[in-house]
TrEMBL record:
Residues 1-25 form the signal peptide. Its cofactor is Ca(2+). Its EC number is 3.2.1.23. Keywords: Calcium, Glycosidase, Hydrolase, Signal. It comes from Splendidivirga corallicola. Belongs to the glycosyl hydrolase 2 family. Residues 293-415 form the Glycoside hydrolase family 2 catalytic domain. It comes from the Bacteria. Residues 57-191 form the Glycosyl hydrolases family 2 sugar binding domain. Residues 201-290 form the Glycoside hydrolase family 2 immunoglobulin-like beta-sandwich domain. This is beta-galactosidase. It is an enzyme of class 3 (hydrolase). Monomer.
Amino acid sequence: MNKHIYKLLLLICHSLMLSHSTTMGQGTEKIYLSGTGAENTKTWDFYCSDGMNSKKWTTIEVPSCWEQQGFGAYNYGHDEYKNRLNETGTYRYTFSIPKNWSSKQVRIIFEGVMTDATVKINGRLAGPTHQGAFYEFEYDITKLLKFGRQNTVEVFVEKHSGNASINDAERKADFWIFGGLFRPVYLEAKPGENIHRVAIDAKANGSFKADVHISNIRKADLLEVNIQNAKGEIVETFKAELNGTPSRISGNIKNPVTWNPEQPYLYQAIFKLKSGDKTLHQHVEKFGCRTVEVRAHDGIYVNDVRIKFKGVNRHTFHPDYARTSSKALSIEAVNLMKEMNMNAVRMSHYPPEKHFLDVCDSLGLFVLDELSGWQRPPYDEKIGRKLLKEMIVRDVNHPSIILWDNGNEGGWNDQLDNDFAKLDIQQRKVLHPWEDFRETNTKHYIDYNYLSLDGYSKRKIFFPTEVLHGLYDGGHGAGLEDYWLRIWNHPLAAGAFLWVFADEGIARTDRDGQIDMDGNHAPDGILGPYMEKEASFFTIKKVWSPIHIEKRYITPDFNGIFNIENRYHYTNLSQCTFFVEWLKYSEIHDGKSIETTFKEEVNLNLMPDQKGKLKVTLPSNWKESHLLKITAKDLKGSTIATWTYPVQSPEAIVNQLSDMGDTSEVILTEDEIQYKVQVAELIYTFNKEDGQLTEVRSGGTINPLKNGPVFVSKEKAVKQVESITNDDGSVSINTVYEKGDSVGWKIKKSGLLELKVAYEPERMAPYAGISFSYPEESVSGMRWMGEGPYRVWKNRMVGTNFGIWEKSYNQTMTGHSGFDYPEFKGYHAETYWVEINGKDNKGFKVYIKSNDIFFRMLTPDQSDDGRTTMIDFPAGDISFLHGINAIGTKFKETSKLGPQASNYFYHPNNIYRRKLRMQLVFDFRK
C-alpha cells in the first residue's frame, strides 16, 4: 500500500475512533489510555525483568509487542521455550478522568495482553489475573477511581502463562510468540443503569432478535431498538418490556437487504434502555441479515445458496509491529484478499483484533473465528470455558463470522463443543480444523487423489481448512488449478483455505531490523512480510476469478466466441463489464509503444452458476493485431481478472524481422578443432567435435554466451559434424546424432544466427530442450515478449499475462530474502523473443519461431531447508525448453499434487514424427 494512502487511512480511522470516544449524553463515553493501533501509540513507563533493555525503568509505546520495542527476547513457538527467559513486564500510566464520571459505571477494557495480566488501579487490584493472550477482558473499576483527579494504572504482564494449558494452546504453536499490551487499552463510562452488551441474531428473512444484557437495573422498564438502513434511515422500531437480564427483544424487518461477501449490506441497531419515555442509556451495534445452514450430506448454505469457500488462513502480523495491528492494516489485508477473488478467511490460530472483523463485515468476507489451540493438549476445561465466552461475547454480532473453530489440529477440547451453542444466539456450527467432525471433514494437506472423495467420509461436507501449504515459492498457486477443478465440480466439496496469507518474518530489533523467518517455519505466505505480491497472488486471482473463461488459442479461424461461466454466488454478470481491446505494438521487436486498434465494452446477463458465451467483435484488421486483451471489472470498477491472447504466432512475428544492416560476405575458416565463421565484425566459433557454439566475438569483444546447445533431458552421442557453404552465401554447421537427432546452425549474410533443433527427449523427462552457458555475473536484465512478468512452474501456469515485459536482475529467493518481485531467475512461458541485457554492452536477442517454448533465465537460488520445494534445474544458465518441471508444497512432493504437478513428460515415439522441433534466431548485432 502507498505510504501516503496508509497514513491517510490511519488518520481517518483514528479520527473515527476519537469521534466515537467523545459521544456524550446517554451514550457510552470512551477514553483511550493507550493509542488506537500500531502507528498510533502512547508512552507508558515500563520495566522488563530480563533480556534486552531489562532491569531498569524506562518507557515503552502502547499498544505494542515489547520485543519490537527492544525488550526481552524472541521466541518462535516451536522452540518450546528453548533458552526462554520467561521475562515479565511492568507497565505504569497516569491518567485523569472527568469529574462528571463519578455518577457513571466505569470499566477498563483490555483488547488483548500477552499473556497473563494483573491489573491495579491506584495500587489496588482491579480483579483476578487474566490469563490468555488473544481475548478481550474488562474490570469494573468505578470504586477504585479518583474522579476529577489523576489516577495510575499498573499492569504486571507475564509473557508465558502460569496456566500450563494456555502455554500448550498459545505459546508452543507454529508461530512467533510475543509479550506485552499488544492491543489497545481504554476506559468506558456508561450511566449507572446501562446496556452492558448485546447479542443479535438477524436472519435473511428479516426475523430479528437480540439478547440485551443490562447492568444495575433500577428504574428501567422498557427496551426499544431502532433499525437503521445503510442510509441512516429508521426502517423498523421494536419494543419490549424488561424481563430480566438478558432481556429478549425481537421483531421482523420487512423486505430485508441481506448480507453476503459480494454485497455486504449492513444495518445499524440503536438499542435504548428506557424508564417510561426517558432514555437512560443507548447502545449501537451494526449487523447483517443472513442465514447460515450446515446441511448434512449436502453443503454449507448462506441465504439458501450453497457456498464454495475460496479462503486463506491469516495471522495478525507485521514485521515491524508483530501482532499489534491497526484498522488501516486490516483494511489493507482484506482488500488484498478481495483482490485475489477470495471470499473467506480463517482466523489462525486465535481470535483477531476486532477491527479486522469490522472490515470483513463491511468489505465482505466469510470468517471462521477460532479459539486458540495447536496440536497439543488444549485449554483445560475451566480456562477454556472462560476464554470461549470472552471470544463469543466480543464477536457474536459480526455477520461475517459464519462458523466457529474449536482449536486447531488436535488442539480442541471436546468438552467445549456444546458450549458454543449455549453462548451463541445465532447457534453457528463448530468445526474441528483437521478432523472429520460432525457434518464436516476439514482434513488438512490432502493428496490430490483424496479429492475423489470416495473414502470413509464420502458423505461428509469436505473443505480443508488448510491446503497447499506454501513454502518459499511452492504451494499456494502451484497446484491450485488442479485442486480447484476437482473441488469446484464436486457437490460435497465446499472449498478450501490456503496456508498462509503472508510471510511471518519479524524485523528483529536485536539484529538491526533483519527479517527473521525462523528457518522454514515462517516463509509460507502468498505475500511477503511487507505485503509484497508473489507470483502465486496472481495465480490465485485468476483461478478463483468468479468469472471463468475457457482456455483457447487465437487462430486464423477464430470466431470471437468464448465459453464463459458465472461463478459468483449472488451476483449477476450484468453488474460487471468486459473491456475488450485489440492491441498492436508499434515495433513488435522492441515493444516501446502499443496502440489500441479497436475497443469495446461488453455486458452479459448471466445468473450465478449459469454458463453462456462472450462474443467479442472481430474488426476487419484483427489479424494484424498482436494481442487481444479482455478485462472484467465489477460494479465498483475493481478488476476481477484479465485474460490476454497472442493473435499472431511466434513464426509470424519472427518473419517480420528483416535481415537489416549491411549484407556482408560470410567467411568460413577451420582448423583441426573448430570452425570459425565471420560476418563483418561478428565471429562465431563452433567445436568440430560436437557442433556447439563456443565463442561469439563482436568487434573484438567476447559475448559470454557459449557451450550450446546442450540437450537437457538426455545425453546424445554425436555421429557427424559438417560445414556447408550454401548457394545464398550463408554457412551452415550441422550436427547429426546417433539416433537421428540434429542441430543445425546457419550464419546469414546479415549476421543473424539461425538454429534448428530436432530431437527425441527421454521417454520420462522432467524437462526437455536445450541450454547454453551465460555467466550470471554478466547479466543486468532482460526484456521479452511472452507471458509475464512473473516466472512459472509446470503446475503454476495461470496468473501471467501475454505482453512485452522488462525486469532488472535481482537475487530474490521467494519468501527467504530480497523480496524484490517479480523474481528475475526462473522459467518464463510462451516466449516469442527475449533480449538479454548483458553488462558492458554484451547482450543479445533471441527470436523464437516455435510455439510453446519456455525461456529459462539462470538458476534461482534455493534454500537447502526447502524440502519438497527444491527444484532440479536443467544444466547450463540459459535454456529454451519444450517442458519444465513442477514445484511441491511444504508437506507434499509433486507426485502427490495432481496431473499438472507430474514432474515427468511422457514422450511416446509416434508424436511429431518422433521428434520435438525448435527454431531460434540469435541476433548479436549492435
